[in-house]
Write a structure and sequence with these properties.
- It contains 7 helices and no strands.
- It is 83% helix and 0% strand.
- It is mainly α.
- The longest helix is centred in the N-terminal third of the chain and has 29 residues.
- It is elongated, with a radius of gyration of 17 Å.
- Helix 2 crosses helix 6 and helix 2 crosses helix 7.
Length: 134
């Protein structure tokens, strides 16, 4: 249990540090005048990645707590499924989401730019969310 706690905490810490670093870098690159658009773009990516992950995090947490499986097979399965899910969510965010937000983005050019700049990070976010629970 202690080992699991350490691994989970380390994964969460890495996830939080990566999030903090990327947010600080993006905010500084864009400057204070564009910070609002940055927030909208960032929150859009965050909400989509967490919403469209369709329960992969709780499922990983549930099955990781069971000791009835081979650890290597479990890790491989989680990695493969989270990568596939990340790619599917990325495709949804590339093809479908812009159709819903195109009128909004006409007035929020910075938010649109941020969305497109951060879009490629969605698979990384989803893999990070699930792998941190193993």
């Amino acid at each position: 249990m202690f080992r699991g706690f350490i691994f989970t905490s380390a994964g969460q810490l890495i996830n939080l540090l990566a999030t903090l670093i990327t947010r600080v870098i993006m905010a500084r690159l864009m400057g204070p005048a564009l910070y609002g658009g940055f927030g909208v773009g960032l929150n859009t990516i965050t909400v989509l990645s967490k919403t469209l992950a369709i329960g992969s995090v709780p499922a990983t947490q549930y099955y990781a707590s069971k000791r009835e499986h081979n650890q290597k097979d479990f890790v491989r399965t989680v990695l493969v499924t989270s990568i596939i899910l990340g790619i599917i969510v990325l495709l949804i965010c590339l093809c479908i989401v812009p159709l819903f937000l195109k009128d909004y983005w006409k007035h929020q050019v910075t938010a649109s730019r941020c969305y497109w700049m951060m879009l490629s990070s969605i698979p990384i976010i989803i893999v990070g969310m699930t792998i941190s629970l193993i």
